[in-house]
Design brief:
The protein has about 375 residues and is α/β, with parallel strands linked by helices. It has one domain: Aldolase class I (TIM Barrel, Alpha-Beta Barrel). Helix content is about 40%, strand content about 10%. Strands 4-5-6-7-8-9-10-11 form an eight-stranded parallel beta barrel, surrounded by seven helices. Helix 10 (about 235-245) crosses helix 11 (about 265-275). It is globular. It comes from Solanum tuberosum. One of its GO terms (molecular function) is (S)-2-hydroxy-acid oxidase activity. Its cofactor is FMN. Belongs to the FMN-dependent alpha-hydroxy acid dehydrogenase family.
């Protein structure tokens, strides 16, 4: 690839060139056969956009409000682990990129920069993602730190009672990265000769007993609104609302947990219909183009979360790479909206897209 990247996919190749194989595989890889990893992207390709013509699109407004926070576009940076494996400035650079583009940043429980470093680095609106550990005091400790450092919401990742089988990490004997948030509180040193040290650490720490009643416990230790991440069907979406969450994130963990789980875009409508507008629905997984964002909004998502492309931009160019990735997606979304006759995100409706099922019925 010669010259500057012209789309976010090209940042992946740049990242591949600069990262050690172990780290690139860690960020890029999925579970087992990686069927869901491919399907997260391919499922978008089977949805087409229905343009509208002769609409005045001289002014396009992509801004939206997510849980009371106005953002420049319906984009949130997905919480993802260990940004310092991609770039020395890690999550601090990612947060600054988010702030510069006026989008929300999700900070991972497994971040390599501390909560305080990220909070003091810029004025980005930040949500904090958590896992629930067997030692609940660890999770409580991190939630309280996030709240005291100005984070605006908690994202509970609920699809990880155990870590998915990530075979690239096993082959590479992926090492556990330094978790500075926990230093002086718990040990993060795990030694295993069976493959991925990260998998061994997860097995030792993650609480497989986590269940719906524990959302009440989480609500009891924080005043922050709680979103739940990992929903893939309408039934779980309704249970989440009953449990009192303020937002639902459709996610298969970047296809890193259960292989052959559905592509997230393929279950979006089911979840939206179950929720019936009671809380916003966000979509995580497979977003690589502004057209993907448009399709997700047309099918009912309030916003999308961007994961791997941000990491690839960070690896290639640090903070400026993060900004480039976000701006590329925003520019593509703006163009898509103009060509589809939509001046605001509220103008994007279900009539603007056709799914594979609908195209099949039209041919009958």
């Amino acid at each position: 690839m010669a010259g500057e990247p012209v789309n976010v996919n090209e940042f992946q190749e740049l990242a591949r060139k600069v990262l050690p194989k172990m780290y690139y595989d860690f960020f890029a890889g999925g579970a087992e056969d990686e069927y869901t990893l491919k399907e997260n992207i391919e499922a978008f390709h089977r949805i087409t956009i229905q343009p509208r013509i002769l609409v005045d699109v001289s002014r396009i407004d992509m801004s939206t409000v997510i849980l009371g926070h106005k953002t420049s576009a319906p984009i949130i940076l997905a919480p993802s682990a260990a940004h310092q494996l991609a770039h020395p400035e890690g999550e601090v650079a990612t947060a600054r990129g988010a702030a510069a583009c006026n989008v929300i940043m999700g900070l991972s429980f497994m971040s390599t920069c501390t909560v305080e470093e990220v909070a003091s680095s810029c004025n980005a609106v930040r949500f904090f993602q958590i896992y629930v550990y067997k030692r609940r005091d660890v999770t409580e400790f991190m939630v309280r730190r996030a709240e005291s450092n100005g984070f605006r919401a908690i994202i509970l990742t609920a699809d990880t009672p155990r870590l998915g089988r990530r075979e690239a990490d096993i082959k590479n004997k992926m090492i556990s990265f330094r978790l500075r948030n926990f230093e002086g509180f718990i040990s993060t040193d795990v030694v295993s000769d069976k493959g991925s040290n990260l998998a061994a650490y997860a097995e030792e720490t993650l609480d497989p007993s986590l269940c719906w009643k524990d959302i009440a416990w989480l609500k009891s230790i924080t005043k922050l609104p709680i979103l739940i991440k990992g929903v893939l069907n309408g039934e779980d979406a309704m249970k989440a609302i009953e449990a009192g969450v303020v937002g639902i994130i459709i996610s298969n963990h970047g296809a890193r947990q259960l292989d052959y789980s559905p592509a997230t875009i393929s279950v979006l409508e089911e979840v939206v219909q179950a929720v019936q507008g009671k809380v916003p629905v966000l979509l995580d997984g497979g977003i690589r183009r502004g057209t993907d964002i448009f399709k997700a909004l047309a099918l009912g998502a309030k916003a999308v979360m961007i994961g791997r492309p941000v990491i690839y931009g960070l690896a290639a160019k640090g903070e400026s790479g993060v900004k480039q990735v976000i701006e590329m997606l925003k520019n593509e979304l703006e163009l898509t909206m103009a060509l589809a006759g939509c001046c605001t995100v509220d103008d994007i409706t279900r009539s603007h897209v056709k799914t594979e099922k609908e195209k099949f019925l039209c041919r009958m």
